[in-house]
User: Fold these one by one.
Assistant:
Number 1:
Amino acid sequence: MEGKEVRFGIAQSALFTTVTTVATTGSVNNMHDTLTPLGGITPLALMMLNCVFGGKGVGLVNMLMYAILGVFLSGLMVGRTPEFLGRKIEAREMKLIAIAILAHPFLILGPTALALVTDLGKSAISNPGFHGISQVLYQYTSSAANNGSGFEGLGDNTPFWNISAGIVMLFGRYISMIAMLAVAGSLVRKQWVPETTGTFRTDNGLFAGILVGTVLIIGALTFLPGIVLGPVAEQLTIR
């Protein structure tokens, strides 16, 4: 029960943690730093993927990003120019999508690595070892996802942490937003392509599976090493 909301208990505290991170609201009713290592993976993963509808709308923006990427990958497999919402997806759109996709993990993993190799960053870690990695990783994940919650065992009220987290918040919000607005502007200028029997449909179960697979594969490839070094490694060392 350490750090949990005593009125609602462990289960409701865990549910609140899940909802507040999946919808990027930032409100908390318990101390996330006291979650079990495996319990800490849930809010981390939800903010890393950052594609569930709710909160400030970033879920919708990012899910559209993954949808366009899924359509593009499907087009590569069948040898057709991919189409989405009646518009062809071409090189310009995919370059912008690549910027939006890469910005999020870069803004999380880059500053995390910097904090873990500098004295200014390491001095704020209150729990040495694997949990300390989780604290730092959560800080920048929450900042990049515009969430606001934290593993508050981290002594982050210092110029280094305030400035670095502020920069991550700034770029985390606007890089993907600007890139996706540019994609929308590029698509709206294109001529509408009528649907034919050869058009890859995006309103069926097949595409739903491709979309979910795209989200999980992209997330696994970019964030799994950090998750393994932090909460997974901590869980394996618990006696």
Number 2:
Amino acid sequence: MISALTERDDGQVLELIRKHGGKDFQARQISHWLYRHGAKSWEDCRNLPKPLLGSLAAEHSLRSCQLGTVDISRDGTRKMLVQLSDGEAVEAVLIPEGRRQTLCLSTQVGCPVGCVFCASGLDGLRRNLTRGEILEQVMLARELLPRGSKLTNLVVMGMGEPMLNLDELLPALARIHDPEGINLGARRITVSSSGYPKMIDRFAETEPAYNLAISLHAADEDLRRELVPHARCSVAELLASARRYFERKGREVTFEVVLLGGRNDRIEDARAMIAALDGFPCTVNLIPWNPVDRIAGLQRPSEASAENFAERLRAGGLNVTLRRQRGADRSAACGQLRLAMGTA
């Protein structure tokens, strides 16, 4: 079976090159062609000897994923269907905003968390993505960028729960951050999680220090369990892990709240959040719910309601951002990613 080079670390690539009769410096050359120049095939590695490339090609590919359908929203957001070698697929989203180009990538095929407002977990979890499959989403997204543009930010907020796939995510992020790889600064990389304090603690031990976002959604214990039914920890435990992250890394944590009209955007919900986050250096990112075809009984709050909720939090001393909807006409907005491309 042919394996992809994106699944291997530098030491493994070096061992592979030696096995096929190459010289040590050629391992670095191949990595540069793959990650810096975006080589898609061995033929793209133009300064390496053909006998070496032929020997490698017989047993290994550079990549394992293919770009499928690309849906382009009216606002320029691009939703990518990434086809995996076993027939599975995930979605990733490229979001332009001025000179900023942000990629939202996935870490699992499906999702086990089952948030009541999110499309990604409607059919459960199929499997974890490999490090190569995570990394190749970035490589495929770069190929869609307009000439003269470059990827500026990465948010691990697509399909799946990143903290449940750290064994594959962390090596992928290391390659994305590596100056000899894709070379994206750690401060431009944000990983989002719905919980899992022990894994957040492990993430806090990682170098370099990436940004952390936590999907809080509600500070009230009972309400959060309604919205995130498979949550494995209490609100208090989750906030404690966020504080430990801040103390270890000195990086402000972002708390994400998907706002549901009449469900978690009430005065009492604002009061509970202000009390829970009092004195904690953080930002609350409010995300008005993006409707999903297969989810009934929820509603997107009005603009006025969302603004009022944001102002209540600000009046309580919290730093608040209100996310602008992007890509919703192509089911590419936050919470709308799913296992198969929509046709809307």
